[in-house]
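Record format v2
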Amino acid sequence: MKKIIDGRKISNAIKEEIKKEVTELKEKTGKIPGLAVVLLGENQASKVYVGSKIRTCEELGIFSEKYHLSEKTTEEELLRLIQTLNKKENIDGILVQLPIPNHISEQKIIDAISYKKDVDGFHPINVGKTLIGDKTGFKSCTPYGIIEMLKRENIEISGKDAVIIGRSNIVGKPMASLLIAESATVQICHSRTKDLAEKTKKADILISAVGKAKFIKKDMIKDGAVVIDVGMNRDENNKLCGDVDFDDVYEKVSRITPVPGGVGLMTVTMLMKNTLLSFKNNRL
Ligand code: GUN
């Protein structure tokens, strides 16, 4: 059996589904979904992510607007832009690329985005809906993409021991909510966790979002584990790599996501899915 979970193949299949639905809805209603992407400053990684989000919109027939603001933008200015976008008829999704400069409160910005247009799934209302299993909320894109990958690869989640490394609001915590909803037994580990390997070795499904190149070695995983690598790091040769030492663990895993070509592609795809969902909820 093939061990590698092909993120490109899965995300292409989902993108085809979205594209088809967008085309059909356009024919039926004359309207198309719209996404506004806000970028502050010149963070190189953020620019790459934003570029990929805009390109994917174009690919799928989704309208997009990019707001590239100076890193000196004030909190007030950004809040005003969000208010404008909240009211804008042709915009279904609003995304402020993180991180934002320190002089602006990230939580204030997230709270200001209408929860009905919060396609990142970061607004407290959507975070809460995800936790209580209310399917009308937006799910955070990376964890949503991971669940979608597991399901499309027919990987059993129910009753499995899942260990997540990382407790961020973007990945770790929403990942736990979604895995609980799928009836996994979930443990979240983080930088203060003691005996980390003791915990990860018990995982049927191990999800790593630590941001340390090749941190997960074979002596940290269970035989036959499913390993999901959310890391996006550079190795000693400046080559893109994940949190997992792929070559080291490969023989021991049952399934594994590569970096690049794994989870990363799913994140943007699920953002498109959320934008389409917002359009259907609010404008049809
Ligand atoms: N920065 C890193 N990941 C993300 C994401 O999923 N959404 C936004 N808005 N910013 C991010």
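The chain has two domains: 29-114, 141-264.
The chain is about 45% helix and 15% strand.
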